[in-house]
Amino acid sequence: MKFNRIIVIVMDSVGAGGAPDAAKFGDAGADTYGHIDAAVPLAVPNLRRLGLGKVAHIHDVPTDVVGAYGLMQEISAGKDTTSGHWEFMGNPVDNPFPTFPDAFPKELMDLFTAKTGYGYIGNEIASGTEIIERLGPDHFRTKQPIVYTSADSVFQIAAHNDVIPLEELYRICDITRREVCVGPYEVGRIIARPFVGEQGRFVRTGDRRDYSRLPKRKMVFEYLKEAGCCVVGVGKIGDIYAHIGLTESYHTSNNGEDMAELTKQLLAHRRDKGLLMANFVDFDSQYGHRRDVAGYAKCIEDFDAALGDFLPQLQDDELLVITADHGNDPTWRGTDHTRERVPLLLYSPAFAEAVDVGIRQTYADLGMTIMDNFGLTGLEFGTSFLNELR
């Protein structure tokens, strides 16, 4: 089968357990789908129709599967958003991005001050919602940004819009990406975390921006763009890939906006050959890291309901891929991502039968399949499963 357009939806962090190297990451037994379903049995009829029940540890419901299905396991050295997404597009991360379990060293923060012109408060491992509430008053008093990290390879900078305007926060983050977090401090992402409100009611806004480090290998987006294909990113996609190879990028703030923009771009580019890719972030940011099992379950069910409206809009020459970039089991210890296999669900109205594409040995199989579909070569990693689709 060949398709005029491929649409990829990444359900950020919705893993399916069973990664063979999970123990190396302290995650043996983690299972995002399985543990959520055990606690709050999931009602996901559309995902089941695409084969989710065949690959995730969820309770059995007799369902006629209309899509192809399988699992993918990661070979990158990390379990973060950047590692997962880059591997999708043919660029596995060989060495883990640096993390800072004891917060950032003095020499790095001195460089931050010298380059940005700002001091800082915080510099600790913290929850983003908790730290702005705790340090918000000091932020107003000192006029300095709040700096913090997590178990991920991130340098997060929070500021209230009335203290440091949004564009100034973006400027600080851009400088931090290019001139501060370099060499041994080259974290996976610098994240701008703007917030608004008053003490006791501080709220992060949807104007978050991620500043990814630059990849060292050429990825699928660039090959597609060079071949004259349309490459459209929705949500965090532009930030994750440092806007390299995209022909268009649309920022969104939540899953609802993701689906609305994805649908809009599906229709707007109906005749364009290429790739449309979206990251749905709420599963991870709103519920996984916060260990909110019930909220995570509802988020999956809401996505499934929205998928019910999206699927009928697909045409025979379009292929939908639904996957995840890592796990984030809300029943697991800590607040970090979890090393898991991820579902690989594929659908086109042109499919004649359901197909099990098995356990893929790298996320890069997705990228190689996209390249194969458009007759392109150049990737070093991955095996296409295009010829397995029926």
Sum this structure up briefly.
Mn(2+) 1 binds at residues 12, 325-326. The protein is an alpha/beta fold. It has helices at residues 32-39, 45-49, 52-55, 81-88, 106-116, 128-142, 166-180, 220-226, 237-240, 255-268, 282-288, 293-310, 364-373, and strands spanning 5-11, 68-72, 121-125, 146-149, 154-160, 189-196, 203-204, 209-212, 230-234, 248-250, 274-280, 318-323, 342-347, 356-360.
Count of beta strands: 14
Strand count, sense and barrel status of the largest sheet are: 8 strands, mixed
Q: How far is the first residue's CA from the last residue's CA? A: 7 Å
Structural class: alpha/beta
Order of helices and strands: EHHHEHHEHEEHEEEHEHEHEHHEEEH
How do the strands of the widest beta sheet line up side by side? 10-9-11-1-12-13-2-14
Q: For the record, what CATH class of the largest domain applies?
A: Alpha Beta
Q: How many distinct helices? A: 13
Kindly provide the radius of gyration, computed on alpha-carbon positions and rounded to a whole number of angstroms. Answer: 20 Å
β content, as a range? Answer: 15-25%
